[in-house]
Structures are given as C-alpha cells and as structure tokens.
Specification:
single chain, mainly alpha, coiled coil, 2443_t:CDS:1
Length: 71
C-alpha cells in the first residue's frame, strides 16, 4: 500500500509539473500575442495618420481643380 501512495504522489507531481509548464507556455504565448496586438495598434495609428493627410491633400487638390474649372 505504501508503494501505491508513493506512485500516486509521483504521478500527481508529474501532472503538476506538466500543468506548470503548460501554463508557462500559455503565458508566454499570451505575452507574444499582446506584443503583436500592440504592434498592430501602432501600425493602425500610422495608417490613420496617413489617411488623414491623404484626405486633406485630396480635398485641397479637388478644391483647386474646381476653382480652375469655374474660372
């Protein structure tokens, strides 16, 4: 019976270590995904700025063109 208790203890310890390793991998993956998310957010902000500038340029050029057409 003592041998069974020892085996059970070892099995539970192995399960515990496996779960700890799995949790560490998951936490590392979550960190990677969070970093990726932040990078994409930064890139999106850059795109939004570019879109704003291009929209302003478009509006200004369109207005100039319309003024030329009316004159």
């Amino acid at each position: 019976e003592i041998a069974q208790v020892d085996n059970s203890w070892l099995e539970v310890r192995e399960q515990l270590e496996a779960k700890k390793q799995d949790l560490k991998k998951r936490e590392d993956r979550l960190k990677e995904l969070d970093e990726l998310k932040n990078k994409v957010i930064e890139e999106n902000q850059g795109f939004k700025k570019e879109i704003k500038i291009l929209t302003q340029q478009y509006e200004a050029l369109k207005e100039l063109d319309e003024q030329k057409t009316h004159n």
